[in-house]
Amino acid sequence: MLLRAAAIVSPAIDASSPWKQQQQQHYGLKKGISTDKCSVGVAAGYMKSKRGVGKHCVRAAVGGQGQPTAALTGVIFEPFLEVQNELTQVSLSFSESLARQKFSESCEVALNEQINVEYNVSYIYHALFAYFDRDNVALPGFAKYFKDASDEERGHAEKLMKYQNIRGGKVKLQSILLPTLMEFDNAQKAMELALSLEKLTNQKLLNLHAVAQEANDGQMTDFIEGNFLTEQVEAIKKVSEYVSQLRRIGRGHAVWHFDQMLLNGGDVAAA
Asked: Is 0.90 topped by the overall pTM?
């Protein structure tokens, strides 16, 4: 899209007024050149404000035969040639994204893999919720904690899916693995499993970040850093503390107090 149009500064006052004639002489406008026949562009004029301060705006002027006039002010507009190259890359197919730009196939595949990781972790946490909600286990605080954790991981998966669509990729869901270990002789073992899952998720996010860096995708690395990495290391710290506390209190009545703490959102239950 190569356009070259001359630009002139023209008064925006009635042509019959002495003020306009004075401004035409001031700007050196030649007689016979119409300031009203302007091409599409930024249009305005020289207007006298109430305080006497003039406001300028640029018009792209054309000659009488549709040919560009000489640049009277020295201002020339030349739209970027790169636009032509981008225009040729816009797909005409309804099955291809129009928003996709500088988004590599490796990043698209890695995002789909991370979506699968988040869904698998969410599935395991949901199974842990069901375990602790059983009548012969009866630890509602642990059930609530793992239900919230399951919802959070699913939310992460949906956020990644949304981002995949924003960048013009295609979401491809994969199989979810069946949890094999869902019976625990104490709550400590379940929390240790949760810690392992949080560390695994963090490692997978770091791998995703590395793929984005290798593809020189600055926007994707910023997205991962801003939405996942900080939150993930904070989650690892929190679950690590829970594991340490459960190891310290052992089994028995203290586990009930810990469960009440989880149920009350971190507040220790009264004895």
From this structure: no
